[in-house]
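User: Can you help me understand a structure? I only have the sequence.
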Amino acid sequence: MENAGSPSPSGTQWTIAADGHEAVVVEVGGGLRTYRQDGVDHLDGYEADELCPGSAGHVLAPWPNRIRDGAYTFGERTLQLDLSEPARHNAIHGLVNWVAWELIEQAPDAVTVGYDLPPSPGYPWALRLRTRWSVGADGLRAEHEVTNRSGEPAPFGFSVHPYLRLPKAGVAEVSLRVPGRTRVLLDNRLLPVAATEVAGTEYDFTEPRPIGEAVLDVAFGDLVRDADGGSTVTLTGPDDSALQVWADRAFGWWQVFTGDTLTGERRRRSVAVEPMTCPADAFRSGKDLISLAPGETWRGAWGIRPGA
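Assistant: Let's start by predicting it. Here is the structure, written out as tokens:
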């Protein structure tokens, strides 16, 4: 359903609801603006008349996070992306978060949106992206498909950027579990320089513990997998309210961001928990970079499950 009056900065708004769960999916970026259960917000989203802040709910493709200098080589080509993070001289968060996605299919409890990414000088491959958002008794679910419509292999990575919040807990009070046994070390441009084990350090969240004063903008890898091959990050409040963010086996990394560089009320109000297929700068390092063959479709799913 489209808003009356002035157009929303995030475009058309599609509301889905079932079993007390409700979410709003938006045209601009094809992402998630709100998600609540029985009136309680589980997502630190944004208003319909607000420009999406801090990439909240954005789909990040064909790469997540940052690429150093926006420059990379793939096959025989040396390529240059626009520097969408000019202050750090990086290309950040892909090419589909500020474009208009189209409605593909709609039902009361689900909506499928899509975008066909055309080739460009910095990324000369055509991709077809489809995302199905749904809600139900088990919470919120996102199912993503990306198809290479070019005649040659394409470099590819994927992530989504939801900010999670618990109703009565600030970031410091939230107990966090992240099933990552390693973390990526960053330079002053927030680009990877190495990886190290978290065991015995302040970054070990493999067992739940309060975030406290920890400042996190960290990619965790070498995941402890669930029985189904996926993995789960858990946030728990002092009142035992809890959220589980799960991702299937297509995702091998979790980025956790405590919002310290955000401004105003959003600073350290919520925790971004991002399932990723690869770490930052994968176009240059090749670390877990997907080479998507002509006609090949990548698929991945993740979701938010309220309750411990």
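Now, to help you interpret it: The domain at 13-288+299-306 is CATH 2.70.98.10 (Beta-galactosidase; Chain A, domain 5). The radius of gyration is 18 Å. Let me know which part you'd like to focus on.
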